């Protein structure tokens, strides 16, 4: 589209924009008609604006400038206008459809590859120059550009797939921890959701919000290393059990630290049980020495835990009771400047949605087998020959 813009101006590039942006999903009927219309219209609008900018530069700077330099400058300006318009239209559509802010959509879906796309503008100019080579050479030489363009397209697709896989893996790890105890179903995802909402009220940078969101999903992953008789105990923990339980932030940080993509989340996971007055664990850090993300997660984690059922407290606290506890321990356990952020969040964010049975793995839907069934199974196991797999627990 940019190469045709440089060769034939706005009208020619608009024709290519209409035809060239046709997607196989549209042909198969997988995109609604209004989506197809918007996609093609936004492509045409963006490339026409780019073409107008290209012609403007050619007209204004035409006197005395070398032809090649002028053509390159005009193509670069037109490409920048095209990308700016195209991304604005795309980001707006995604934001309206999903309810996610434009800034967030940019950070998650475009920002990481924007520079690579802008870098294609010189390649488009070179394509246009090669196409104009005399003797018909340009007609067969231009298709050679398909290889780098296809490579760029493939790299972008891999970028999207890798990011999705990364997010799905984090969510799977969080669910694996929560699945050990029906009482903590969706606890990690709710803590992450509340913490993200707090971050947006505080207007933190998108990179920081994403780090805190992922740390929220994984903040309890260290409980994988805590025995069930401690983790699921109904009632207060004794001193020895408390020491074991207090190790889970350290275990969690050690689990995620080797992963380069999660190394910045490890300090937040390690510190999410530190208290503002320094009496928390595992290191007794106090006040602003505690990472900001950890101070946010501490408040979100405490609120979610208080308003949920637990083995040691079957009746959850009401919203008002939980808020009263947060304010009571403000400046002691919680950062007094951040507590009001959660208190003032919309109740639609804070209120727990009804639990659904399908949110647990299938095996956890079943009740524990009666003792006589367990005895029969043990008897059957003794009746058969020993297997090598019997030694694997």
Task: Tell me what the structure shows.
The protein is mainly alpha-helical and 393 residues long. The protein folds into two domains: 2-132, no CATH class; 169-357, Orthogonal Bundle (Hypothetical protein af1432). Helix content is 63%, strand content 0%. The protein contains 20 helices and no strands. The chain has helices at 2-20, 24-27, 33-60, 67-98, 102-110, 114-118, 121-131, 137-141, 146-178, 187-201, 206-218, 228-231, 239-245, 248-256, 266-271, 292-306, 319-328, 339-343, 347-350, 371-383. Helix 1 (2-20) packs parallel to helix 4, helix 3 packs antiparallel against helix 4 (67-98) and helix 16 (292-306) crosses helix 17 (319-328). It starts with a helix and ends in a 10-residue tail after the last helix. The model is unreliable at 380-384 and 386-393 (pLDDT under 50).
Remind me, CATH topology of the largest domain? Hypothetical protein af1432
Question: What is the tally of helical segments?
Answer: 20
Tell me which CATH architecture of the largest domain applies here. Orthogonal Bundle
CATH superfamily of the largest domain: Hypothetical protein af1432
Tell me what portion of residues adopts beta-strand conformation.
under 5%
Low-pLDDT residue intervals, each spanning 5 or more residues: 380-384, 386-393
Mean pLDDT, as a whole number? 82
Query: According to CATH, what is the class of the largest domain?
Result: Mainly Alpha
What's the β-strand tally? 0
Structural class: mainly alpha
Distance between the termini: 61 Å
SSE run: HHHHHHHHHHHHHHHHHHHH
What is the molecular shape? elongated
Number of domains: 2
Helix fraction, binned, reads 55-70%
Largest sheet: none
- In angstroms, what is the radius of gyration? 29 Å
């Amino acid at each position: 589209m940019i190469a045709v813009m440089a060769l034939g101006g706005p009208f020619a590039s608009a024709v290519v924009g209409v035809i060239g942006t046709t997607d196989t999903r549209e042909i198969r009927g997988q995109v609604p008609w209004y989506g197809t219309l918007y996609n093609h219209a936004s492509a045409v609008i963006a490339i026409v604006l780019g073409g107008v900018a290209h012609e403007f530069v050619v007209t204004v700077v035409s006197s005395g400038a070398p032809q090649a330099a002028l053509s390159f400058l005009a193509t670069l300006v037109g490409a920048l206008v095209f990308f700016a318009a195209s991304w604005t239209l795309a980001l707006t559509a995604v934001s309206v459809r999903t309810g996610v802010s434009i800034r967030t959509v940019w950070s998650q879906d475009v920002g990481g590859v924007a520079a690579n796309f802008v870098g294609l503008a010189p390649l488009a100019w070179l394509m246009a120059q090669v196409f104009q080579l005399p003797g018909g050479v340009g007609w067969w030489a231009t298709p050679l550009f398909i290889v780098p363009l296809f490579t760029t397209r493939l790299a972008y697709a891999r970028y999207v797939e890798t990011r999705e896989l990364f997010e799905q893996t984090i969510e799977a790890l969080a669910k694996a921890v929560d699945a050990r105890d029906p009482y903590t179903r969706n606890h990690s995802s709710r803590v992450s959701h509340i913490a993200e909402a707090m971050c947006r009220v505080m207007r933190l940078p998108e990179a920081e919000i994403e780090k805190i969101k992922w740390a929220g999903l994984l903040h309890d992953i260290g409980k994988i290393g805590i025995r069930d008789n401690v983790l699921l105990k109904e009632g207060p923990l004794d001193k020895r059990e408390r020491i074991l339980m207090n190790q889970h932030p350290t275990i969690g940080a050690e689990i995620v630290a080797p992963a380069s993509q999660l190394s910045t989340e490890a300090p937040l996971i390690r510190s999410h049980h530190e208290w503002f007055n320094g009496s928390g664990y595992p290191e007794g850090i106090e006040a602003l020495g505690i990472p900001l993300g950890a101070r946010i997660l501490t408040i979100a984690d405490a609120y979610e835990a208080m308003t949920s059922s637990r083995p040691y407290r079957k009746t959850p606290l009401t919203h008002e009771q939980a808020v009263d506890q947060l304010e009571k321990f403000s400046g002691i356990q919680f950062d007094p400047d951040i507590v009001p952020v959660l208190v003032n969040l919309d109740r639609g964010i804070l209120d727990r949605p009804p639990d659904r049975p399908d949110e647990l793995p299938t095996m956890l839907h079943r009740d524990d087998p009666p003792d006589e069934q367990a005895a029969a199974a043990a008897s059957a196991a003794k009746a058969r020959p020993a297997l090598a797999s019997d030694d694997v627990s």
